[in-house]
Amino acid sequence: KVRSMLDISFPPKEEDTSNGVAPKLGVEASIEHELKYRVSANNTDARPVKLYQSVAWSVHDRLVDAFDQTQAYWKEKDPKHIYYLSAEFLMGRTLTNAVNNLDLGGEYAEALKKYGADLETVATGELDAALGNGGLGRLAACFLDSMASLDLPGWGYGIRYRYGMFKQGVKDGLQVELPDYWLDNGNPWEIRRPETQFKVGFYGSLEDGKWVPGEEVIAEAYDVPIPGYKTKTCGNLRLWDALAPEEFDLEAFNAGDYSKAVEQKRRADGITAVLYPNDATEEGKELRLKQQFFFVSASLQDTIARYLEQHKDLAGLPDKACFQMNDTHPTIAVAELMRLLIDEHGLSYDDAWAITTKCVAYTNHTVMPEALEKWPVRVLAKLLPRHMQLIEQINSNWLDSITGHVTAKVEAELAASDAEKQKKADAAAEERKAALVAAEAKGEEALAAAKKMVSEEEAAEEKPADKATLVEEKLKTYSIIQENQWTKGEMLVNMAYLAVVGSFAVNGVAAIHSEIIKTDIFPHFVEIFPERFQNKTNGVTLRRWLAYCNPELSALITEALGTDEWVRDATLLAKLKPFAEDAAFRARWREVKQQKKKALAERIREQTGYQVSTEPMYDIHVKRIHEYKRQYMNAISLIHRYKVLKEMTPEQRAKAVPRVVVFGGKAASAYYMAKKIVALILSIGETVNNDPEIGDLLKVVFLPNYNVSEAELIIPAAEISQHISTAGTEASGTSNMKFALNGALIIGTLDGANIEIGENTGFENLFIFGVKADEINKLREDRKNFSDYDPRYTAALQMVSSGVFGRPEYFEDLVASITDMNRGNDWFLLANDFASYMDAQDAIDELYRDQEEWTRRSIIYTASNGFFSSDRTIDQYAREIWNVWRLEGSDYQRH
Ligand code: KOT
Q1: Cα–Cα distance for residue pair 326/506, rounded to 1 Å
Q2: What are the tens digits of pLDDT across the range 16-59?
Q3: What residues flank ligand 1, with Cβ below 6 Å?
Q4: Which terminal CB of the chain, N or C, has fewer other CB atoms within 10 Å?
Q5: β-sheet with 659-664: strand ranges across
Q6: Which of helix, strand or coil describes residue 382?
Q7: CA 876/CA 870 separation, integer angstroms
């Protein structure tokens, strides 16, 4: 049944609630209208981009209608809201998602026939909204979809970057970064709100305890409607743009100093100009802190203002608002909420603290030390003097509150070590006594010497430790403000510690990760508040990542299950299991995979010029380029594979299992080694793909500019996917879930969510290799000599160094990073895992020869991984952290 948004009445009422502004035109007429009046094209010159624009504007109007009604309804019912604070939202394209979530797919397909177009093609006219780096930003986008689909009152809050993640190109075998002009053709998915503006201050000083900012900018809201899947709920992503105060106050601009005004505009523009392209690394730049404070302050002011429209007393804020901090990037919210409550709304420090710590929760996404944010006190005190003062106060109250605990701990340790020491001292005293007796028997001289020795020994004996000093030392390990371990004397604010102290809940993003943060990152906080720490295993939206990116497989699933309910209730996928045993079904499953491989092959040809066959196994390794993710280890294994193929006789080659290996991923522009890894993959491809002896047996492709839209094309085509991070380094991973749901088998380590995917799918169905997380520290300590390595590994690296793939000098330090004790010393333990990685690769080749068994497993993967729907994740957040609920007895009830 196709439902039109035109006749939505929400909340259900007899009369039309749309105030006459709702689109009155049908889909076809509205496209026509937009084409003529908005983008000024007619049917004959409706080029793809213009057609996309008019379709998008037509959908926009329907979205706005749903949006207005939802927001008005929430305002009336006043339920508790969740505010997801995130520096990144990696939304990708919107058109397909919006049309299908609004259940208008049929109508738009029909209307587009007139232009000889289909929705899939029209959708390619849209540029990705790439306001994120990778997993963390994409998770935020999946969460918005799930909140709306579960009818939860939820908003996202972030930054409207004018330049998102850079576009990656390839030139002369190297990555090049190009600007992402994503707003160039306008953005039909946002609604500018010039009426919603807040002042955000920076710098300045404290005068009589009051902050007088030295610089002010205006935050202006843009709303991006978030349609739930076949529900009337339409949530909101509110993104902030920065304006100079003069843009906002024209009179002052006219009266004031022109060049000063221009300078102010330049500074304001700078705040929202560009997304920092670092994934899981921090760049301690003042501008980054400015961005963080900018969006956090605007979001908190906005929430409080809306709250105060309906309530007098801020004491009730925790019943109406919960702020979920997506990693530490929004952690300044702890201090800013305190400031707003105390300085702007007159609350006492204690009342403000009680409210803040009931409103804020924190999600940790990484244990990589270089990603844990620590802002120098000097930088914070300059940019946000009042906040620095509040952080000092928060820290000193925190340390006071635990001094009793720490003292007791020190006393217990002292008591234990005292007893130990006393035992030692008693034994030593006995020995000395015996020595004196023995010396006495030997005469005067021996006795004198023995006495001297005894008194020296007694003097050297350990003095009892000073308790106060020990308590002070231990307290430092709990302190939010700590000395920089590299730059002595420089004090740093540990943002993760501030987040833990200021939050009522702290969670990791996969089971193993949530344990690691408890044992390795926050053990001393766990002592104090064990109940604060939780796990919320990540998930992905099945709308974008199965239903819409793989309509062919989805149709097959729906046919088998006799319903498409699995799109909202992913647990239903389990009913697919029996079909794995049905040979006819397997043949159709393979047929779909083949179709998706064909589409990817076409894309590879377009983007790289390489012609790849659709017969070989499609082996995919796509994610941000990082040493810990070990694309480099895969590259080394491919060099070995190439070498083996070269050495084979033609008879042996005829029996080899051919592969197309596809890499994709961006290297942060300043990440030296990551860029070299990209270059190495490109070079291997250049050599292997042009080697006539190899032909279709092996192709190594680096597909440039991996992003959400490319992922939607690549993932459905994958037969094997690689998730091979050093155990204990990948917090969760989310593409592993997308691949599994699309029936790609996984080769991976026991890391992040791979473990839970293994538990759900059956570990025997994955290709698991490598050491476990708890072995890593010891292995790092006793890393071997280069000469001890697996001969295949050594030979492959030798080929790089000797120039088989060109540019040997360029790759010299990449090789050194895993072979030289003083230049990296193989921190991510490629050498340790290489042999078992190769065993897993052999097992893959072996299984691929048996296409029936391979397909059986592929179906088992899709059937087993409904758990990784972000609907499940969000339901857990809602119940176990946020305490937000769907409105009872309303139109929200799903049928
Ligand atoms: C950290 C600093 C800056 C930008 C991004 C990060 C970041 C990204 N930290 N963790 N992530 C990834 O988050 C994903 C979603 O939880 C995880 O699946 C993935 O393992 C993290 O690396």
Answers
A1: 11
A2: 444 444 446 899 999 999 999 998 886 666 577 899 999 999 99
A3: 133, 135-136, 139, 278-280, 282, 327, 365-366, 371, 509, 538, 730-734, 752
A4: C
A5: 698-702, 659-664, 617-622, 720-723, 745-748, 767-768
A6: helix
A7: 10
Q: How confident is the model at residue 464 (pLDDT cuts 50, 70, 90)?
A: low
* Choice among 96-110, 168-182, 206-220, 258-272 with the minimum mean pLDDT: 258-272
Q: What are the boundaries of each domain within the chain?
A: 19-162+171-356, 560-783+830-868
Q: Which amino acid is at 880?
A: E
- CATH code for the domain defined by 19-162+171-356: 3.40.50.2000
CA distance 246 to 248: 5
The Å distance, Cα 140 to ligand 1 centre, comes to 11
Q: What is the DSSP letter of 376?
A: E
Pairing of strands 698-702, 659-664: parallel
For the segment 76-124, what is each residue's pLDDT rounded down to a tens digit?
Answer: 999 999 999 999 999 999 999 999 999 999 999 999 999 999 999 999 9
Q: Which of 365, 593, 626, 630 is catalytic?
A: 365
Catalytic choice (474, 623, 630, 872):
623
Q: Is 683 helix (H, G, I), strand (E, B) or coil?
A: helix
Residues 884, 888, 892, 895: is their CA dihedral positive or negative? Answer: positive
End-to-end Cα distance, the chain: 14
Is pLDDT of 15 > 60? no
3-state secondary structure of 352: helix
* Protein fold of 560-783+830-868: Rossmann fold (3.40.50)
The CA distance from 789 to 819, in Å, is 10
Place of tokens 């299984």: 847
Whether the CB-CB separation of 592 and 552 falls below 8 Å is answered with yes
